[in-house]
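Translate sequence into structure tokens.
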Amino acid sequence: MGENALQGIRVLDFTWLLAGPYATRILADFGAEVIKVQSKKTATGVESNATGYFNTWNRNKLSITIDMTHSESQELVLNLVKISDVVIENFTPRVMTNWGLSYEAMKEVKPDLIMVSMSGMGQTGPWRDFIALGPTIQALSSITYLTSYSQGPPVGIGYSYADPVAGLVAALATLAALEHRARTGQGQYMDISEYEVMCSLLGSTMLDYSANHNLAVPRGNTSEYMPASPHGCYKCLGDDRWCVIAVFSDEEWYALCRAMGNPSWAKQQKFSNLLGRLEHRGELEKLLEQWTLKYTPEEVVDMLQRAGVASGIVNNAADLANEPQLKSRGFFVQLHHPVLGNTDSDGTPIRLSRTPAQYRRASPLLGQDNRYIYQDLLGLSEEQLRQYIEKGVIS
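Result follows.
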């Protein structure tokens, strides 16, 4: 397939915020020509092309502007659909249909079109018109409930975990549809509900209930599938600095004790075996944190990993940006943006040996590729382009 896995695939991208743009970014990283459809009216806030947020999720893409409130905009888009392979959108169900861009309408001009609709609750059912963001979906799916330390109020995940998960599912669904089309010549319409995507992550929890009648309850930092103690997150020296430690066996416990200098409290009979450490978990956690507070997380982790005890640093954003393991694997991508300058973003974790991801350009400026798309691809004359701009259609 050439040096890019998706070379020759054109994607018309009607997505915004995170879930949809992440899906199309994956496709763009592997060579698809992704055309992001924008408008001056909506390219504001985090959707402004000059923000770091927008740049993170929209690298390798092209940008055109079109105001969909104009009657002439539909014809322009349908002409783009004719020369595209995939249309992806993550609006609520009413939006594309209101623009006259339903799957049925677009299939009339492109019979083998692949369309992916990403919404909070899916295109059907009583919740179809509900507007939802990642944290809302996480709460409805019960993931948020499971983040509590006890039966009290949940802590929450802290970021929109549901969005990148839905983006990955949408990208995978698109690849499956492209393969299906290559074999059969048939396009497909795919309805992806972010709510259903998140519920699918609870498979083991639902199986445990159906098979063993075990209710899903918050477990805090305790080990869910293999008994361990200590097993938690501990405050370290510094401002809001933490580490995690997990001890699964008596041998690891003795190694931890040696790393700590064999403190007298660790020699107590109640901590001498795993059952005792589990029974007295709360007391043990406090005593261990008295030791971790004397050192930075880097120092704690270095000592414990050398001793053979599982441990890690709780990284903040600055830690991640300078993490030696991520740097050594080339995880971060630096691209030059005409407004933001040199920018860093996460590379794709998807590794293909023969057709690896390529990072060709930072996110586009608003309407940066209007001439290429409208004139080179659609064949508009200079006069036609000027008239569309004057009318505000291309805006």
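Note: The CA atoms of residues 30 and 357 lie 5 Å apart.
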